[in-house]
Design a protein that fits this description.
Blueprint lengths: L1 H19 L5 H15 L5 H30 L12 E9 L4 E6 L2 E7 L10 E8 L2 E6 L2
Helix pairs in contact: 1-2, 2-3
Length: 143
């Protein structure tokens, strides 16, 4: 009977992994596969099967963690757009978060912009880019 339970857990973990693509359950699928084989081999003690599941899942996490970190960090690499953070730009359309309006020219490119502190920033004022949110610059007025 436990053979089918472990098979079900493994299938559920694989389905979750495929649906999320976030490396959240692949380790449990491998642990369940190991317990499936233990149960299939005739080991009927549930506690042994659970221990195998926990150990196999833990070993899989430990072995694959460096690879997962490398993949996650690779996705988080900065883009060329991030290079405008900290730069100074000129407001070409009044920034008003309530309107919502605002354009800033920085490095020859015009960006949609919003004020970090919800202040209104007038056209031709100079601003400092604090961060990028989606396709909008979040700025503060240069002091």
């Amino acid at each position: 009977m436990m053979v089918y339970v472990w098979l079900g857990i493994m299938i559920a973990a694989v389905v979750v992994e495929v649906c999320t693509a976030q490396m959240v359950s692949v380790w449990f699928a491998i642990g369940a596969l190991c317990s499936f084989f233990v149960a299939l081999a005739g080991v009927e003690q549930l506690w042994i099967q659970i221990v195998v599941f926990v150990i196999a899942s833990a070993i899989t996490v430990i072995v694959t963690r460096p690879l997962v970190k490398k993949l996650v960090n690779k996705r988080a690499e900065p883009t060329n757009a991030d290079m405008v953070i900290g730069k100074t730009g000129v407001v070409t359309e009044k920034i008003d978060n309530l309107a919502p309006t605002g354009l800033v020219k920085v490095n020859g490119n015009v960006w949609t912009a919003r004020s970090v502190d919800d202040s209104v920033i007038e056209e031709n004022d100079r601003v400092v880019i604090k961060e990028i949110s989606g396709v909008k610059l979040l700025v503060i007025k240069e002091s």
